[in-house]
Each structure stands twice: as C-alpha cells, then as structure tokens.
Design goal:
This protein is α+β, with helices and mostly antiparallel strands and about 140 residues long. The protein has helices at about 10-20, 115-140; strands at about 1-10, 30-40, 50-55, 60-65, 70-80, 85-95, 100-110. The chain is globular, with a radius of gyration of 14 Å.
Length: about 140
C-alpha cells in the first residue's frame, strides 16, 4: 500500500480541473506520453483508458468511481507493464484554505511475483511522486 500527497498553491477547484480528466493523465503526469479512452465516457464509472508511457509501455485502466463534487476518482489497472497486480487507486483533492489544496494519491496492490514486493512498492511510489511533483510544478 502506498500513499503520497503534495501541497499545491492553487485552489482545490483549479487542481481538480487539472487532474480530473480520466482521458488525459498526460496533462500532468510526465511518464505518460498518450492517454486514450477505449470504452465508456470521460468521467463516467466503467470508462476504460490505455496509457502509453514515454518508454512505449502500456497500462490499461478502468474508472471505478468518480465524484466531481467530492473531487475524487478511483480506478483499477486491468493489465500493465508495471510489476503489480490487483492494483486499485484513488486520487483525491482537498481544499487547504484559499488558493491552496492537497492532493492525495493512494494505491493498494500485490507484487506480480512475491519476491518483488519492494520493487512493486518502489515503482508505485515513484509513479505517484513523479506525477505529484510535476502537478505542483505546473499549477504553481
């Protein structure tokens, strides 16, 4: 299980607007070259997306919950190049006062191979840290 967060000097609304598009993770995550909705509709539970990473790897994900009012979305990985399985994640934006917000990204998963628990955790932590750091940079 990995949880990462970042404080952003931008309102929760502005921050949510940047990260809320399930069909455009590349808008703020530097590892993602392309995001494509392959089934369903943007922001609707059940939507599926394929991420193409900068190195060409693919990740297929499915939106399991989406609440714009609460500024939260959850998704699962259905197939990926990452060393994890049974992956489920939630992104949540909280207001932290005027023009400030906190983004919390959490995920639970199992390593694809039992011996790879550290590799799995390190990989996911790296994905979250890289995305959140870039989000902060973009919004500030």
């Amino acid at each position: 299980y990995v949880v990462k967060s970042v404080n952003v000097n931008a309102s929760a609304t502005v921050t949510w607007d940047k990260i809320s598009k399930f069909g455009d993770l590349g808008a703020w995550h530097p590892a993602v070259a392309k995001t494509e909705i392959t089934a369903g509709a943007e922001g609707k539970k059940g939507a599926k997306r394929t991420l193409t990473l900068q190195d060409g790897g693919k990740i297929n994900e499915k939106l399991t919950a989406y609440n714009a009012k609460q500024k939260t979305m959850s998704y699962i990985i259905t197939d990926s190049v990452l060393p994890v399985t049974a992956y489920a994640s939630t992104l949540h934006v909280y207001s932290n006062g005027a023009d400030k917000s906190v983004v919390v990204w959490e995920g639970s998963f199992l390593p694809k191979a039992p011996a790879d628990e550290k590799a799995a955790s390190d990989t996911i932590a790296g994905v979250y840290e890289g995305g959140l750091a870039n989000l902060k940079k973009i919004l500030e």
